[in-house]
Each structure stands twice: as structure tokens, then as C-alpha cells.
């Protein structure tokens, strides 16, 4: 089984808020002009934030049951 985890590169985030607007479960917010994950548990790993981020600052990592991080899928 694989799980996906949201990862945010704050250095790349320009604070546009597009990812926050597209999040269907409101798991993201803006804090100090940067995207912030409110709760990993709230996130449904749909990937809309990754798809819409123009700066590639937010992405999903795939994690196997053994904790191994794989390429994004």
C-alpha cells in the first residue's frame, strides 16, 4: 500500500494562494504569505494543489508502508 504526503517548499512559494483556493477540504491556508498545511490528516491527497501551483512549491510524495519515499506519482 502507498500513502501520499503533501510537501511544501517554502522557498519557492510566492504566496499566490491558488493551491488554497483549489483545496476541496480546506487543508491549506496562507500564513505570512506562504502556503501552510493545516493538517496532514485533513488532506485527501487529491493532488489539486500540486496541479495548480504555478511555482511547483507544493507536491505529493509517495510513501510505501515500509516508510520508503518513492518518486512522485
Describe this structure in words.
Keywords: 4Fe-4S, Iron, Iron-sulfur, Metal-binding. This is 4Fe-4S ferredoxin. There is one protein chain. This protein is of the alpha+beta class and 73 residues long. It has one domain (2-70): Alpha-Beta Plaits (2-Layer Sandwich), CATH 3.30.70. It has 2 helices and 5 strands. It has helices at residues 18-22, 48-52, and strands spanning 2-8, 28-31, 34-37, 58-64, 69-70. It has a 3-stranded antiparallel beta sheet with strand order 1-4-5. A two-stranded antiparallel sheet has the order 2-3. The longest helix is centred in the N-terminal third of the chain and has 5 residues, at 18-22. The chain is globular and about 35 Å long. The model has no long low-confidence stretch (mean pLDDT 88).
Amino acid at each position: 500500500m502507498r500513502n501520499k504526503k503533501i510537501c511544501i517548499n517554502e522557498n519557492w512559494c510566492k504566496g499566490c494562494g491558488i493551491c488554497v483556493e483549489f483545496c476541496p477540504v480546506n487543508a491549506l491556508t496562507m500564513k505570512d504569505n506562504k502556503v501552510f498545511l493545516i493538517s496532514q490528516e485533513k488532506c485527501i491527497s487529491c493532488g489539486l494543489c500540486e496541479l495548480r501551483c504555478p511555482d511547483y512549491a507544493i507536491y505529493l510524495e509517495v510513501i510505501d508502508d515500509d516508510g520508503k519515499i518513492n518518486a512522485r506519482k
